[in-house]
Structure formats: structure tokens, C-alpha cells
Amino acid sequence: MTALPEQRRALVIEDDPDIRSLLVQILTMQGFEVTEAGTAREGLAAARFGADLITLDLNLPDGDGVDVCREVRTYSDAHILMITARTDEIERLTGLETGADDYISKPFSPRELVARINSLFRRQRSRAAQDEANADEQRRASTVQHSLLPIGTPRVDNYDLAGRFRPSRSVGGDFYDWYSTANGLHLTVADAMGKGMGAALIAATVRAVMRSASEQPSLPDAFANAARALEVDLEKAASFVTLFHGRLDTATDVLEYVDAGHGLALKVSANGTCTRLGSGGPPLGAWTDGQWSTGSVRLDPGDYLAVISDGLLDIYETVEAFTDAMTSVIQASSTPDDACQRLLDLADDPAISDDVTVVILKHLAAGRP
Amino acid sequence: MQFSTEHKTDYTEVAGNGRLNMVAAPKLREVVQEAVSAGYKRIVVNLAETSFMDSSGLGALIGCLKLARQAGGDLRIACVQPQVLMVLELTSMNRVLTPHPTAEEAFSHD
Predict the structure, then answer these.
(1) How far is B95 from chain A (nearest CA, A)?
(2) What is the distance between the alpha carbons of residues B76 and A100, in angstroms, rounded to a whole number?
(3) Confidence at residue A348, expressed as pLDDT on a 0 to 100 scale
């Protein structure tokens, strides 16, 4: 954000075709590459592709411009110029936390509009130093968060393991963790409420507490202790965490697990049948007298265990459609790493605005290295 | 997302239309907080027009439920749409936030 990009991009969200074409014309003359949207829905979708400037009409046929503005602000740092039909609206709007950078009322002259836009971009330059410092901090936070993910995969006889984490912003509320133990492997996938820095702080705390519980031989005891330790902090932060924690015993090929409100762990058998393991209690911190049942699942040679965060669920209408899609991707892949990559590719959908995490464990078929 | 509050004979109905996400969650908390502070402790959140809820939205519902119960009342949900129901079931929170078919029925069996 230090220098102006060569081609500035603008998005015009306006339902009146005449005003829209006027705006497009003015912005094109100013050197913008312009995208148009006639409804709130189209505008929200188009904004995800990135823009340096958004002109936003307050009254859209399918939504309130203020809501659109707030929503866009959750994922975009574009300059937003709100356009209203009435001058007296502006006073009301400036009193609200809309996230807009400036307001202009109809009718406006092209000169007035251009002056407002230039002023927005001038302000940007003076903010650039501050932005640079913030961006630097975000980068460091992102580096720290990635350093908390496991490095490489532990060697577990007859098993292959892979994981991916893609935050929706520089940092996110998801994490995964694994480590080998004397009997096999422990793995955790968790998703803290919300997104961004706040969620990331919670995620780091949960990871540390779960790690410290790893020494306890009994899974239900280890989990209950971890839950108690976290409950107080989560309550104070008005947050909660969905979490899947499993312990694999390679002597029996049984994975014992606790699912706290996560609900998206799947066993995909070698023959293609998929079983969703389902949650055994509420998310951590969501409810004080939470009780969690322990489940177990056997992984035969060729079977996969996939634990996926709900970010990927957002593009499917139902859980069934989700499990079907996950199953066919996993079956078509050659290794857990390949499966993770393919699942993350699915997440390249503009409809996904949440963090996405995938962990896949495979019991290798006998005779394979 | 806009919320409306309507005081009925034996409960207060809060309805919201749109997506209950990170943006709308604080608004819902605010609306319910206001009702509970004014002494309306039996809250029904009508979700007929709520097409989508994410984890922040669920967090707001849980927070509002805690708020109502701490005040000696309760919060219940009605007219839950498929995606919201899916989130409640996946997280097992349907055991605490049990969906009721209509707002009228939410407190009718007490």
C-alpha cells in the first residue's frame, strides 16, 4: 500500500442504470478499471475479487447499503464512497459505524465526485506509513501462527498423514496439531469462533492446553481437564471453540476420539463408504455443564480419516452434499497430501469467507512402503 | 441485518432477517440485552427470515441465552431454517437451543 497500483480497480454498486453508467464513465475517465453491480448480492460477490474503490448506493433493491458496507468491510479495505438520495441522510450515516470512508448525495456533479475520490486516495497516502506498520505486525502474527503448526509429519508405521490451514485473513481461528506417541499418534483440529486476530489468540491458547493434556493416559480425563482449564478463559472472552481430538493406537488401528461440537470428521473406507463421526457434545466454552462422549473408530488398510473445518462446508447446501463431495475428492486422490491439496483447491470459491483447515490420515494398504 | 422486537403477552419476540454473522452478531446481543434489562426475560428469537448463521452468530445466540438465564428468564428459538439447523446439529447446540416450530409454541408448554 505504499504506492498507487498501476491499474486502480473500482466497483460500482448502483441499481439505477443511468446513474450507474454515469459513474462507470467518470471512473473510467479517471483511469479505473470498472466493474458494475446492480444489486447488493452482486456487489458483495464482486467485492471479493478486490477493488481499490467502491461506490455504493444506499438504497438497493435487495438490501440496505449500510449492511452491504459493513459486510464488505469484513473482508475488504477498499475505499468506500456511499451514495445517498438525500442530503439529510448523510448526517444520520456519519453517526453510524458504517465503515464507509465518505458520503455524497445525488445529484452530484462529475467534478464533485472526482474531487471526493482524489481526496480519499490522498488520505490513503498519508495513512500509508501507519498501514505499513500494521501490515508488518500482521505479517509477523501470521509467521508466528504458522510456526505453531506442526513441522513435517511424524513417522507412524503404516500410516500417512497430511494437513493444511488457510486463514481467511492474515491469521485465523483454526489450527491443527499432531505428534507421535509411544502407541501411535495424537491429532487435534480446532476452530475458534470468529476470524482474525482475536480468534487466533484463542486458537493458540487451546493448542497449548491440549498439548499439556497429552501426557494423561485416559482420553476422557485428559479432555475433561483441558475443557475445564479452557472454560474460564473462553467464558471471559465470550468465545467458544469446536474441537476434534483423536488418539490412534497403531497396535489395534483404533482411533479413540472426542468431538466437541465440530461434527465434521469423516471416515472414508477403502470401498468408498463414508461415515460421519458426529459430535459428542457442545463446543468448548459454549456451555458450562458440557459433557462429552468418547467415540472410537477402526481404520482398516486403505481407510481414511478426514477432519475438515466448517469453512469448506459453506459452499454446500447440506451436510450430506458436503460428505459426498469430500468422499469423492478423497477417493480420487493418491495420498493424504494430494487429498488435502485438492480439498483446499475446492476452497478457492469466493463464497468461502472463513478459515479452512483439512487434516487427513490414511491407513496404508498392506505391502506399501 | 435488522432486528425487530415485539412484546407479546407472555414472551418477547426478536426477529431478524438476513445473515447472522460477525457483522450482525453484536446487534443481536444489543437487542436482547436491551429487552432483558427492561425486564423482558422470556425471549423468543424468530429465525424464519435468518437464512445463514456462522460461528459468530451462534456465539451471539449462546451469549443471549446465558444473559436471559442469568436474569432468571430463558431464550428460545423458533422457525429455524435449514442452514441454521445444520449448524445447531453439527455443534450439538440443538440440545441447549432446541428449535421450536413457531414462536407461539416456544413457551407454550411451560
Answers:
(1) 9
(2) 35
(3) 82
